[in-house]
Amino acid sequence: MADALSTAAVSSNYTYELAPKTWDLIRNMRSGTAVFTMPSGPIKCAGAPQKITYLAADYWRQQGVLSDIRVVLVLPTPGMFGVKVFADELERVVARYGIEVHKSSELVEVDADGRQAIVADNANSAKEAIGYDMMHVVPPQSAPDWLKATTLADSANPAGYVDIDKHTMRHNRYPNVFALGDAGSSPNSKTGAAIRKQAPVVVKNLLASMNGRPISGSYGGYASCPIPTARNKMLLAEFDYTMAPTPSIPFIDTTRERKDMWYLKRYGLPALYWNLKLRGLI
Predict the structure, then answer these.
(1) From 45, 83, 90, 230, active-site residue
(2) Do the domain assignments include residue 44?
(3) Around Cβ 172, how many Cβ atoms within 10 Å?
(4) Across-strand partners of 226?
(5) How many domains does the structure of the chain reveal?
(6) In this structure, are 178 and 105 located in the same domain?
(7) Quick one: which of 117, 170, 238, 274 has the most CB atoms within 10 Å?
(8) What is the Cα–Cα distance from 125 to 223, expressed in whole angstroms?
(9) Are residues 8 and 127 in the same domain?
(10) What is this structure's pTM?
């Protein structure tokens, strides 16, 4: 994958300098096969591999060329999403665009010279080669190497995340250590929304620990994946450890893709992030 990224037909939005290349590939494509992949294991913003797929398909639809493009989405999961109500909505989205979804599958090799993506079907222990004219890849992700090499890491997990209790965010072996966000082993999706809910728990429990009091803060696994399904629609998937929808906006059905949610993504969330979240106000 790393070598393929230097070729003309492969890109990844997970590398800052390659994001413009992704747009160039999408904008210039008029026919052929476009492959979008997602690795197994936790990744930053778990919905991102699907986001770029839908945005690309919507652009091709607007350009009138979608019918000439085979769009392939490779997912390691058995469903479109871990929460059924959101999975059902995304099934409708891929059907609308005619996207070919390979579930329980993962990109395992790239033949960049032959423009072949080798995809493993883990459900059937089989592999197939998919020729591509463009491909967007998402690399497997883990804790930083320096962290994986320490005793703070979860020895049972090769990704090397800090071994913490998923509710208290306290280290399971070192009571004076807390962790949150992308480095922690809590099984929630690694999103900014999750960190926003984890931070107050860490503060509360850390202060209690420093003052010799029992810790009482508890994180319920809240995470949020805002998934644009078109240039002007978004599905706001909010859920917790119970894998049940946990909507934070009253009186609005956020289990469906909506235009008003796209406005939230485009304008509301950046304002909340820079003006409130980073200042500790929410």
Answers:
(1) 45
(2) yes
(3) 14
(4) 236
(5) 2
(6) no
(7) 117
(8) 32
(9) yes
(10) 0.94
Dmax over CA atoms of the chain, in Å, equals 66
Taking residue 13's Cβ as centre, other Cβ atoms within 10 Å add up to 19
> Which domain does 109 fall in, by range?
4-141
pLDDT in tens, the chain (282 residues): 999 999 999 999 999 999 999 999 999 999 999 999 999 988 988 889 999 999 999 999 999 999 999 999 999 999 999 999 999 999 999 999 999 999 999 999 999 999 999 999 998 999 999 999 999 999 999 999 999 999 999 988 889 999 999 999 999 999 999 999 999 999 998 988 899 999 999 999 999 999 999 999 999 999 999 999 999 999 999 999 999 999 999 889 999 999 999 999 999 989 988 998 888 887
Q: Where are the alpha helices (DSSP H) in the chain?
A: 19-28, 48-63, 84-97, 145-148, 192-210, 259-263, 269-272
Q: Are 34 and 69 in contact (CB under 8 A)?
A: yes
State the CATH number of the domain containing residue 13.
Answer: 3.50.50.60
Question: Looking at 225, 234, 237, 261, which residue is catalytic?
Answer: 225
Is the distance from CB of 205 to CB of 213 less than 8 angstroms?
no
Q: Tell me which DSSP letter residue 40 carries.
A: S
For CA atoms 172, 242, 198, 142, the dihedral sign is positive
Name the residue among 42, 86, 51, 15 with its Cα closest to residue 229: 51
- In this structure, the answer to whether residues 151 and 135 fall within a common structural domain is no
CB 29 within 8 A of CB 69: yes
Is 190 within a domain?
yes
The dihedrals phi and psi of 281, each to the nearest 5 degrees, come to -90, -20
Residue 239 is a catalytic residue: no
Tell me: do 100 and 194 sit in the same domain: no
Q: What is the CA radius of gyration of the chain?
A: 20
How large a percentage of the chain has pLDDT more than 90? Answer: 88
Residue 45 falls in the annotated catalytic set: yes
Burial of 17 from C-beta contacts in 10 A (0-12 / 13-18 / 19+): exposed
